Amino acid sequence: MLGINKECDDVYKILVKKELAPSVKLFEMEAPRIAKKAQPGQFVIVRLDEEGERIPLTIADFNREKGTVTIIFQEVGASTKEMGRLNEGDSLLDLVGPLGKETHIENFGTVVCVGGGIGIAPVYPIARGMKQAGNEVISIIGARNKDILILEEEMAAVSDQLHITTDDGSKGYQGFVTQPLQKLIDEGVKLALVVAIGPVVMMRSVAEVTRPYGIPTVVSLNPIMVDGTGMCGGCRVQVGDESRFACVDGPEFDAHKVDFAGLIARQRMYIPHEKNHEHHCANKQGGGCKCHSH
Fold it and tell me: Which domains does the chain have, with CATH numbers?
């Protein structure tokens, strides 16, 4: 596939490791050929070792001059927990990308960028790109509490306005990201585009807020993937009357056409397999996880 790079014989070294919040890690990785072609909205697939799980992660940042890409991940399963134990100077076996279609960026007017939880990471380069294209960027970011809110300063730097929400009210508005969005609409702000990335239920809620007003809304989907090239079909999602693959047709889609109910149902199908994978990893003797991808 054109545009996909795996630098043969290169080592994907972790140059910088940061803990952004409990269980949320940032790796700045050495990957010059991927950095050269990466665009906002695209993703990579990483693999720790020969038998490791293939993990799709949206590119949170890239630096063409330094030849680096930045990934941010949350330790939620056996593979991401193992990856979180790596340190600066350690390497990954595979870093393949950039995959997926880039975000369509132009001067739309006023663009609202909504990031929820770990979804703030992929929305950051999009907000930056929209700002560089001359848009007025209004960003809304949210988390359960202030301790797990990430990239606040980075988002503020690329936004004309930044609204923060937390479920418990420990920072910013108490409530959900949809509330400041609805307030902007109620105040008559002319919104040309809304981009939302985060938990599926959050993206669905954003879509339902903007739908009655006909405000163009884009969401980025990250369902279960295996190969990331459209071969396995594991990441298919219903968009309007078409079945699409998030890896090659997305990851971004028209939020008002996505079948969120079907997407949530498909995600739930994999929960028993993921728990079984973690059980096997927890009972394995020595070393890192050697379970095969599922």
Answer: 12-99 (2.40.30.10), 107-219 (3.40.50.80)
